[in-house]
Design brief:
The structure is a single chain. This protein is α/β, with parallel strands linked by helices and about 375 residues long. The protein is built from 13 helices and 15 strands. The longest helix is centred in the first third of the chain and has 38 residues.
């Protein structure tokens, strides 16, 4: 009997242990792994489904929202990137300030950020939500931060940069060109094309006049700039707005020489067979750094942060450079370019910035716009 009791006890213990083990496993599966698995993000820790059906309203420059990189993002997140393009700095500001459309994401040069900041049109960017900022070109970011960090908060992330050089048709103009004064040369009357842009026209003319800081002009210097632009006006074929307008003027030989909106105009014309060359005048040329900025009333800032991070990734930046020849902001993107692509986009020349002047926030946008409108209205 004693042996029988011992066996019964042992069998009972084995059964209890077994049940206990089965019960533990069942509990873990139901409340832990099983539940987590059903709600797990589909890709890399991101919950892709929660953004499905949303729309990001973007106010941008041409060339920044191309199908090559926008479509994959839309497909991945099930969202729509709706783009509105602007032809000039002034047009972009007017669209954003009107409030008729609540733009989630706006692209602008770093010098304009302060203008939007003062009008309370933008909101800070949470850099902790971006994974690609540590790959940004260090000296470019440092220069840019001087203009986009306000009260310790970052309001913009660089996306692309480029100079505003002179463009010259080398088949039509054989002599060397090394100064902005060529845009005032009577021998090119009727063949000069230049920007319809108050801020950049004022700055470029101030550089030609030798003023030390083209973004901090006295009233007397502003009058001198106005007089110089009025002197030029009879020689100008047209003031153009937008890349395509400028390119068409040079492609049709209506313009031989001009103030370009960026190197991409020149490289596009070269691809069309035009012998258009880039000139950085001895007085220097402006350099813009365009930034991505989140609108004050952005519907879903989290989604906009994800889109910004995607746009500054080395993959998208390499695509941007290849397609537009703009300078990229992600240092690692240069590793995805050919030597020729690096050269065309100036990603191979760290000293390129030495002869360039940052497009900064001016002493008064209003005064510059007034000056420019008076120049255009003059008979």
């Amino acid at each position: 009997m004693k042996l029988k009791h011992v066996l019964i006890v042992l069998i009972s213990v084995v059964i209890l242990v077994g049940l206990s083990g089965c019960g533990g496993n069942t509990s873990s599966t139901n409340s832990g792994a099983g539940t987590a698995s059903s709600a797990a993000p589909a890709n890399g820790g991101e919950d892709l489904a929660k953004f499905k059906g949303e729309t990001i309203n973007v106010l941008s420059w041409e060339g920044y929202q191309e199908d090559e990189w926008v479509k994959p993002f839309e497909q991945k997140y099930g969202v729509t990137v709706k783009v509105t393009y602007a032809g000039s700095v002034d047009e972009m500001f007017a669209k954003a300030a009107s409030g008729s459309v609540k733009y989630d994401l706006i692209f602008m040069d770093g010098g304009s950020v302060n203008r939007y900041y003062k009008m309370n049109l933008i909101q800070p960017i949470d850099l902790a939500k971006l994974t690609n900022t540590n790959q940004l070109i260090a000296n470019m970011k440092s220069l840019n931060d001087k203009h986009v960090v306000k009260d310790g908060k970052t309001f913009a992330v660089p996306f692309a940069w480029g100079s505003l050089p002179m463009m010259v048709n080398a088949d039509k103009i054989k002599e060397p060109i090394d100064s902005w004064s060529a845009l005032w040369d009577p021998k090119y009357s009727g063949k000069i094309v230049t920007l319809d842009d108050a801020a950049n026209q004022t700055a470029m003319t101030a550089m030609l006049l030798g003023f030390e800081d083209p973004y901090n002009l006295t009233d007397e210097q502003m009058e001198q700039v106005k007089s110089k632009l009025l002197e030029q006006k009879p020689l100008v074929r047209t003031y153009y707005a937008g890349f395509e307008d400028g390119k068409n003027l040079m492609a049709s030989d209506e313009g031989w020489i001009g103030f370009s909106m960026g190197p991409t105009m020149i490289t596009d014309l070269q691809k069309e067979g035009k012998n258009i060359v880039e000139v950085i005048p001895k007085e220097g040329a402006l350099v813009w750094i365009d930034n991505a900025v989140i609108g004050k009333d952005a519907k879903d800032p989290e989604l906009v942060h994800i889109y910004i991070d995607y746009l500054i990734s080395s993959e998208v930046q390499a695509q941007l450079i290849k397609k537009t020849s703009y300078g990229g902001v992600n240092a690692d993107s240069a590793n995805k370019l050919t030597d020729e692509e690096k050269k065309v986009s100036h990603m191979d020349d760290p000293n390129y910035f030495n002869n360039l002047v940052y497009v900064a926030f001016p002493e008064s946008f209003e005064k510059r716009v007034k000056l420019w409108n008076e120049v255009k209205a003059a008979q």
